[in-house]
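Figure 2 data, in text form.
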Amino acid sequence: MISLTILVENTARGAGILGEHGLSFWIDTGAHRVLFDTGQGMALIHNAARLGIDLSLADAIVLSHGHFDHVGGLEAALTAAPRAPLFLHPRAVEPKFIGTDPAATRRISTTYVETESFLHDERQVIFTREPCEVAPGVWATGQIPRTNDFEDTGGPFFLDPALTRPDPLLDDQAFYLSTSQGIIVICGCAHAGVVNTLSHIARLTGDAPVRALFGGLHLENASVRRMEETVRALRACQPHQIGCCHCTGLAAIRRLWDEFPGVCLQVYAGRRLEFAD
């Protein structure tokens, strides 16, 4: 039995479970356990304890990209799991900003990640742009090629506070695991575009069927064309379950629920999903 537990999400259900703008998944294959993203850092440890999850058992910690709502809990996660190797793209440590006016720029990276404070002799840290098997049958995609002309990073992201250097967010990566009924895909924010992400994973897996798609898709500001192409790509994949959340945007989530009745489900902190394999 494979289980996915949402440790951090914007919304929460269950006694004492906290919600925050962020994302973190705990993946348990029965033989191995992986923490994918860490949220902002206010909810991770608390929610894991409430849900009976022992983070010290993590066989790996994987970061989808360097934004604070995905890496803010990293220091706490590494303290809780001192032996777990850490996987991230080398550009996840870059300073990151968001804004449309230099006078009102907001920093969206963290000092802990920017200064690479996670590096020390006892910690195995794997910087990689390539697909990487973080545990048997469990993969980080590595850097995702941008192959279409309708997807962008989803917002005004920059590498400097003066907003002169657009951030292509090359550090964005997704996560997938193989099952007998197809692959389960988890996106952090899909800044590379969910269609690019699914196309990349299809190439890596020999067009394995998509059993489920979860996570943030950053479609809040999507153009009409981008939304149409996204629906078309998901229809071609025919996932059995779609659980989009976090940065996807309410209008986009509603559109997906309309387009895929009986397939979409709610994803929130405190939810555990199980998959027979």
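Caption note: The longest strand covers residues 2-8.
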